[in-house]
Write a structure and sequence with these properties.
The protein is of the alpha+beta class. About 55% of the residues lie in helices and about 10% in strands. A hairpin with a 4-residue loop joins β4 and β5. It starts with a helix and ends in an 8-residue tail after the last helix.
Length: about 350
């Protein structure tokens, strides 16, 4: 039952969560933005605490995360907000029901205003002076964006949502294509790496130790050049995506709520506020991934130089993103197959029971 619950929960996850989580993980570890830390003295954290429990601000921050996350989700749509439609057609209902008649249809570029928040995630909206109707929250956020927001960012999130919706067959086909590409890259990683390194400036047969006049320059390698490139396992950078995808599945099975808090607010170089085993598991996994990332980032600059090195890093990020998705979906697929086999075994066992008749 726990395995079935995990697969079902993962299938209901927001499609945009995976790419955003992966990109956020890499952004944090590549030090483009400061690593989030526990906020001390935040005014939005309640100050009440249970008797007998230490008054730890870090613990409060974690235990109130769900309430704050729910409030942040509710604040995405407020009364008086103006949205811009970014789909071909957005249907406005005549009443608060999915099967209700369509009162009006808005097209891309039209604007609407939220008038009132209703029950069951419905809103009363106005698209003109006399045109009013009702719209569900999900339809509003998927088909329109806040006036003044970045439309390119909105379209990018929607693209990820459509491409990575695991409830659709097209998404699994895309993941299958990614899996083939990842396997091919892992097999021919050294060859592909050599092709990329040919783009280096003055890359010819005399670039390293030779010269055109026949003399040979001997130069002893430094410490990093003795380590990189890694000869025994050249495709080891792809382990970043494998480890992160596996961590997400294990975390979802273990405690999805705690994992969500950890990756959104809880991670810190210094382990502050960790009092559950899942926190230490996620922390250890992230540190291991940090070492992997630092390793192949350093390797890229050592073997490719300051110009081609960043290009290699970008390509590895793309490949690790694909590896992350393939690993995550592959584990889910294996779990679903196990559940299916268990169900079929149970049906077969119940169908082969012997029935005795007594006269």
């Amino acid at each position: 039952m726990m395995l079935l619950y995990t697969v079902a929960s993962a299938m209901r996850m927001k499609p945009s969560l995976l790419p955003l989580a992966f990109l956020k993980f890499l952004v944090l570890f590549l030090f483009l933005f400061p690593v989030p830390s526990i906020s001390f003295g935040s005014n939005d954290i309640p100050t009440d605490s249970k008797p007998g429990i230490p008054d730890s601000l870090a613990s409060k921050n974690r235990h109130n995360y769900k309430e704050r996350a729910k409030q942040a989700e509710e604040n995405k749509v407020k009364e008086g907000d103006v949205f811009i439609v970014d789909v071909k057609e957005l249907e406005i209902k005549s009443r608060t029901h999915d099967t209700a008649d369509v009162s009006s249809i808005l097209i891309a570029g039209d604007s609407l205003k939220v008038l009132e928040k209703l029950e069951n995630h419905w809103f009363s909206v106005s698209s003109g002076t006399d045109k009013t109707g009702f719209l569900r929250r999900s339809a509003l956020l998927e088909g329109a964006y806040h006036a003044g927001d970045n439309v390119l960012l909105f379209r990018t999130k929607r693209l990820f949502s459509n491409l990575l919706d695991l409830r659709k067959l097209n998404s699994w086909i895309i993941v299958g294509i990614m899996a083939v590409l990842v396997v091919l890259v892992a097999i021919y990683f050294r060859r592909l790496d050599d092709l990329l390194l040919r783009l280096r400036f003055n890359h010819d047969k005399y670039a390293n130790q030779g010269s055109k006049n026949g003399s040979v320059k001997t130069r002893s390698p430094n410490f990093l050049q003795r380590i990189y490139p890694v000869e025994r396992w050249p495709s080891y950078p792809l382990l970043t995506g494998v480890l992160l995808g596996t961590t997400f599945v294990i975390g979802a099975f273990w405690d999805a709520g705690e994992m969500e808090w950890f990756f959104n607010e809880g991670f810190n170089i210094l382990p502050v506020g960790y009092d559950l085993r899942i926190h230490w598991f996620l922390y250890g996994s992230c540190l291991l991934n940090l070492l992997l990332i630092l390793s192949w980032v350093t390797e890229s600059f050592v073997i490719a130089g300051p110009i081609i090195g960043p290009l290699r890093i970008v390509l590895l990020i793309i490949l690790n993103f694909m590896t992350f998705l393939v690993t995550f979906c592959l584990i889910l697929l294996v779990a679903a197959l196990i559940i299916g086999l268990m169900i079929l075994k149970g049906i077969a066992a119940s169908g082969t029971r012997k029935v005795y008749y007594y006269e």
